[in-house]
Amino acid sequence: MPLSSPHPPRRRVLRTGLGLTAAASLATFVTPSPASASARAAEEGPRAHPTSANGWPMEPQADASGGIWTRQVPGSSVSVALRIGEAATVLVHVIRRYHYEIDSLVHGEVIGFRPADSALKGYATNHASGTAVAIRPTWYPDGAKGGLFPHQLAAVRDILKECQDVVAWGGDFRRPNESHFQIDVPPSDPRLRRLAARIRRWEDSPGQGAGTLTLGA
């Protein structure tokens, strides 16, 4: 069951005070921490091919023939457009754990693919390759920290630990964006394949994966 609080969370105060929209939140982009794949890509300068900051091919529109399709997040009303294959497997798992362990999500609260255009810069270009999601971007204003309660932050840290550096969280960027999660390795990285394979095994095994509890844990 998702954790909840009887009091309005601080992120709602931030949302109300700043009155941001999802588009506004995603329109302001900054450089992530130097340790991330996005920062390394930015330091390499312009690429010969249209790839996002994490090294994945960008797409002009959501189309399965081009590599982008819409996935339903199991156990929720959320659907999100993502890169077909390992990237979608991992990001859907992240969203699903968020839904179960941090707060319940509903349709429209998660933004995945966005078409490549001049408005996308820096790590936000990862949306154009279908390898990033923004979870409730209006709740977590760009540049602000402290939108999560301690138990929610602990859950995020556990998700990141489970993903073993394959996924990066915008809350760790130099200018934080606590709504942002991205695949932080290029398509050829074997860690992505291993993580996706492990998640698929969990999905096939009762009592494993997102939303399960271990007695005595």
Automatic annotation (TrEMBL):
Residues 35-69 are annotated as: Disordered. Keywords: Signal. It comes from the Bacteria. The keyword Signal applies. Residues 1-37 form the signal peptide. This is Peptidase M15C domain-containing protein. It comes from Streptomyces pseudovenezuelae.
